[in-house]
Amino acid sequence: MPGPESGVVGIGDSTPADVTRLGQAISDTQSVLAMLKANGENLSNPKVWDGEYAVTFRNGWKQVSGSFDTLIAELTDLSGDIQQITAAIQRAGGPH
């Protein structure tokens, strides 16, 4: 398969389907992470949940929440890359 330095895009038979599945998996993962973050934010509110385990949860939640934010941002960037890959595949005319 040609390398990126050649300016030629090499596309295997499964590439379009693989890219589509990857894009869908990214979207699904972003949705799950957003749901987890929303539920975690809700549970981190002492008016919603309080007690010994709630305090333990809240003490760790800021770090976890920040990790979710970072991961969601990285997946958003990757999703943009997937769109560029899809466009390149379409310009190249599909698998060769």
Helix percent band:
over 70%
Number of domains: 1
Beta strand %: under 5%
How can the largest sheet be summarized? none
Uncertain segments: none
Distance between termini? 10 Å
Specify Rg, calculated over alpha carbons. 20 Å
Structural class: mainly alpha
Number of strands: 0
Q: Write down the overall geometry.
A: rod-shaped
| Average pLDDT taken over every residue | 88
Number of helices: 2
Query: SSE order in H/E notation?
Result: HH
Description:
This protein has 96 residues and is mainly alpha-helical. It has one domain (17-91). Helices cover 73% and strands 0% of the residues. The protein contains two helices and no strands. It has helices at 15-43, 52-92. Helix 1 runs antiparallel to helix 2 (52-92). The radius of gyration is 20 Å and the shape is rod-shaped.
Summary of the model, kept short:
The protein is mostly helical. The protein is built from two helices and no strands.
Provide tags for this entry.
96 residues; 2 helices
Map the helices and strands.
Blueprint: H1 15-43, H2 52-92
